[in-house]
C-alpha cells in the first residue's frame, strides 16, 4: 500500500469552544477554528511528512451529532496513554476505561468521553 488508510477524521461537537478547550488541554496542542459557511471546524495540528493523519472538531447541528455508542471510534496515538488520561477529568471529560494492555505486541489502549459526549480512544506502545 502506498498511503495510510486514514486520511482525515471529524469529531462531532455541540459547542466548538468547549471542545476546543478540552482537546487543547488534554493533548497540550493548539486547535485552529474556522467557520465554513455555518459549519464550524476546529483543525487539529498536522505535520507534513510525519506518520499519522489529522482531522477536526465539527459543529453543525444538521449533519453532526456527538455519540458515546454510535459512529466511528478514533484512536489518538500517544507515548503513554496515562499522560492524556491524567488530564481528561480536569478538562471536563470522563474516563471510561483506564490503561489496558491489548497484547505485548500491540501495546495499550484507554477510552474516554470528551466534553461533547463522544467516545474517543488512546493507544500507546508502552
Task: Walk me through what this model shows.
16% of the residues lie in helices and 36% in strands. The chain is of the alpha/beta class and 126 residues long. The chain has a 4-stranded mixed β-sheet, covered by helices on one side. Strands 5-8-7-6 form a 4-stranded mixed β-sheet, with helices on one face. Strand 6 and strand 7 form a beta hairpin. The mean pLDDT is 93.
Describe the structure concisely for a colleague.
This protein has about 130 residues and is α/β, with parallel strands linked by helices. The chain has helices at about 15-25, 80-90, and strands at about 10, 30-35, 40-45, 55-60, 75, 95-105, 105-115, 120-125.
How would you state the average pLDDT, rounded? Answer: 93
Please describe the biggest sheet, giving its number of strands, its sense, and whether it closes into a barrel: 4 strands, mixed
What's the assembly state of these chains?
single chain
Total count of helical runs of at least 4 residues: 2
Question: What is the strand and helix layout of this fold?
Answer:
Elements: E1 9-12, H1 16-27, E2 32-36, E3 39-43, E4 55-59, E5 75-77, H2 81-88, E6 94-103, E7 107-113, E8 119-124
Parallel strand pairs: 1-4, 5-8
Antiparallel strand pairs: 2-3, 3-4, 6-7, 7-8
Characteristic key phrases:
single chain; 126 residues; alpha/beta; four-stranded mixed sheet; 2 helices; 8 strands; 16% helix; globular
Amino acid at each position: 500500500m502506498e498511503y495510510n488508510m486514514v486520511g482525515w477524521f471529524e469529531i462531532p461537537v455541540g459547542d466548538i469552544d468547549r471542545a476546543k478547550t478540552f482537546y487543547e488541554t488534554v493533548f497540550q496542542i493548539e486547535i485552529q477554528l474556522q467557520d465554513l459557511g455555518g459549519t464550524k471546524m476546529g483543525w487539529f495540528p498536522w505535520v507534513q511528512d510525519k506518520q499519522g493523519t489529522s482531522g477536526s472538531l465539527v459543529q453543525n447541528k444538521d449533519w453532526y451529532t456527538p455519540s458515546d455508542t454510535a459512529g466511528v471510534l478514533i484512536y489518538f496515538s500517544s507515548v503513554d496513554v496515562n499522560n492524556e488520561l491524567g488530564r481528561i477529568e480536569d478538562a471536563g471529560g470522563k474516563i471510561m476505561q483506564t490503561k489496558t494492555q491489548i497484547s505485548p505486541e500491540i501495546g495499550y489502549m484507554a477510552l474516554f468521553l470528551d466534553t461533547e459526549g463522544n467516545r474517543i480512544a488512546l493507544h500507546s506502545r508502552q
